[in-house]
Specification:
By secondary structure, this protein is an alpha+beta fold. Helices cover 28% and strands 31% of the residues. The strands form two sheets. Strands 1-2-3-4-5 form a five-stranded antiparallel beta sheet, sandwiched between helices. The protein has a three-stranded antiparallel beta sheet with strand order 6-8-7, with helices on one face. Helix 1 crosses helix 2.
Length: 176
Amino acid sequence: MNTLNITIKTDNLLIRSITMDYKEQIYREFTGEIATYLYPKPPEDMEETARFIESSMKENQAGSNFQAVVLRKGTEEFLGCAAIHNIHTTTPELGIWLKKASHGKAYGREAVTALKEWADKNLDYEHLIYPVALENYPSRKIPEHLGGKVVKEYEEKNMSGTVLHILEYWIYPPVV
């Protein structure tokens, strides 16, 4: 499934396949503070951001991921990035980060809920994986809101070298 040109609309958001149009915003907003509890590290330069976007677009085209930007509906203000990784498997993984100014407004919950609803309609999966650092309480509320249950706990060293205690939530498709 090619995910290169998808837009998901919610009440407040547009979740749109990533393009180079967002290179500067991603570079500026994906800071060390934002990446504290995440696996990736902030880009060191604009070229690293461009390589990330180029790789993401190839993965979208190949149908292995749906890497997207999160925009405010109406203004199309850049809020962050969200993804469903490994969409060709029975256990795709959800991920999201939002810029600091967008924290505390429930945009993360709205975006991940929309990604789950898209997965329910478009993917054949056993469960979605949502890994989150134990200390990241706001992000833990997202899978819990979607009925996710902690199934695994493990330590993982992120790309910045920090060891994170990860809670792996599993979120199941609706029962039909």
